[in-house]
Specification:
Permease, AI-2E-like, transmembrane helix, 383 residues, 12 helices, mainly alpha
């Protein structure tokens, strides 16, 4: 390798290292692009009905904001009521437990009494776990503040992308050579359609899971069934981890009502999760974006390992976009054309061999004919 090639290789490695260090920022930008693309597609549907661009964008953003407000309006008040009940019933439960321990200590022989703990000894033993939980709570709070800032960044970027989508699109297309820009524009169109299909599929799966949760919790007469069902549907956007997180508040609220309901809720959510992971999501995603179930699971594991929770959350849209670029650029523009060229070369070689054979045969026939004519001529001369 000469000096120029070494410089190019070093520049590529440095670029990859910088991109890896900026991976979280790039994922947030990608999340903003997905959200802006979805809202832009919705605005275009409104424009087809004769609505002006400004009103269509405002209506799309209004629907999105109304959905967020409606979600928190359905979730927060019932959970606040249940939390108040929890703060009231936990001290009563501790008091009942202390009374039960007192009666147990009085009923047992004195030799065994020292081995029966009381509330004070239990609280001392639990103090390290309490301190660890408090530290974890502070970490969760700080992480929540960081998450809020990231969400605000995504929303601001979404608004900027949505204001002038064509300008940012043209800027991205200009990063490619001039002969390939029209091709990139077509690939971006397909990415938009596929992302819209993913959003539609995710909304269908989320609605089905939420509806099944509401119906099941209502049959079990669990308090705040509607809020818990909406939360289960929303957390279904997080693959694999979301259904596990949604069962925790449902079991806690059911435990406050009756202990057996907590186990019943666990069985209900296990059934819903199995139906969602084995039937609902694979069928919906295969129909909307043509993703095989195994590819979906492998992509979730891959992006979760590389990028953490944010990668797990964006695993499916990342897979959809990566699938399209691989199909269009690597398969169609590289492999297919290379195969076609090889086929043409093979056909040319076959035709050339046939022509050579025919030429050789014709030459042999000509030589034989010439020899025959010479022999006949020699016979005439002898006569």
């Amino acid at each position: 390798m000469n000096l120029g090639q070494w410089i190019g290789l070093i520049a590529i490695l440095l670029s990859l290292y910088i991109l890896w260090q900026l991976k979280e920022v790039l994922l947030l930008i990608f999340a903003a692009i997905v959200l802006a693309t979805t809202l832009n597609r919705l605005a275009r549907r409104f424009q087809r009905s004769g609505m002006r661009r400004g009103f269509a964008v405002a209506l799309s953003v209004g629907i999105f904001i109304a959905g967020i407000i409606g979600f928190f309006w359905l979730i927060v008040p019932p959970f606040a009521v249940q939390f108040q009940q929890l703060t009231y019933q936990v001290p009563r439960g501790i008091e009942r437990f202390n009374t039960w321990l007192f009666h147990l200590r009085s009923a047992l022989p004195r030799e065994i009494t020292p081995y029966i703990p009381d509330i004070n000894s239990l609280s001392q033993q639990a103090q390290p776990f309490i301190n660890r939980a408090v530290g974890t709570s502070f970490a969760v709070v700080s992480g929540s503040l960081e998450a809020v800032l990231k969400i605000l960044l995504v929303l601001v970027l979404t608004g900027m992308f949505l204001a002038e989508p064509q300008a940012y699109r043209k800027l991205f297309i200009r990063l490619f050579p001039s002969f390939y820009r029209r091709r990139v524009d077509g690939i971006l169109d397909r990415c938009e359609v596929s992302l819209e299909g993913w959003v539609t599929g995710a909304f269908i799966a989320m609605s089905v899971v939420g509806l099944m949760s509401v119906i099941g919790l209502s049959i079990l007469r669990v308090p705040a069934a509607l809020a818990l069902g909406v939360l289960a549907g929303f957390l279904n956007l997080i693959p694999n981890l979301g259904p596990t997180l949604s069962v925790i508040p449902a079991m806690a609220i059911a435990l406050l009502d009756a202990p057996w309901k907590s186990l019943a809720v666990l069985g209900l959510y296990f059934f819903i999760q199995q139906a969602e992971s084995n039937f609902i999501t694979p069928v919906v995603m295969a129909h909307q974006v043509s993703l095989l179930p195994a590819i979906t699971l492998i992509a979730q594991l891959f992006f979760a390992y590389l990028f953490g929770f944010l990668g797990l959350f964006l695993a499916l849209p990342l897979t959809v976009v990566a699938k399209i670029w691989l199909e269009e650029v690597f398969v169609k523009d590289v492999l297919d054309k290379w195969n076609g060229k090889s086929k043409r070369e093979t056909e040319f070689v076959i035709v050339s061999d046939k022509l050579n054979e025919e030429t050789a045969k014709a030459t042999d026939d000509l030589v034989v004919k010439k020899i025959t004519n010479n022999e006949e001529q020699s016979g005439i001369d002898d006569d």
